[in-house]
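User: structure tokens for this one?
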Amino acid sequence: MSYKRPDRKEDELRPMEAKVGVVKNAIGSAMFKIGKTIAIAAVYGPRELHPRFLQNAETGILRCNYNMMAFSGSGNRVRPGPSRRSKEIALVTTKALEPALDLTEFPKTVVDVFIELIQTDAGTRCAGICAASMALADAGLNMKDLVCAVSGGMVGDVPVVDLDYDEESYEGGAVDIPIAMMPRTGEITLMQLDGVLSKEQLHEAMKLAKKGCEDIYNVQKEALKAKYKEE
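Assistant:
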């Protein structure tokens, strides 16, 4: 029997909310919520990078930090502090955002982005990327485009977008594909595949994810516009 979503269509995202300027002492910040997953990102810098041997004489460097708060998870308590998983997600987040960001005006510096997941129900790295992208834009840094991220995949034999925790844990099997993209050009800046898919299944999942990114893009833009309307 084919999988059927109980609360939304296969091509539908969970409800979203977004806001910028949420951390007062940061130069840029944002909150992005999708379903029960909430990410908050704060940007600090550019500031001189130490130790100096890490500096790039031609451009600034982006550095991301990802953290799930201890009681954020749907399941067991998250152990506080850095873990192998959080370091891996921080690295892929940095790589997903770098193509959109131009830091050539700030050589030998670092821009730090701190991403905190205060509540989670799957899709945490994608929510973190969405929040971080908005925070960088809020900071006034030179960007080619915003970066949007969402998971496509298969639950059983059904292609879906924006998997939640129950779908990732589906007994009939699930495959999750986080992707990030710059919607203006369609450039993919992140793609990870956890599982095995046919070429046709991958194509269907990617098509849903790209459409989902476009929906997220509209939410991100509206949040940025809303702040500057208030000002």
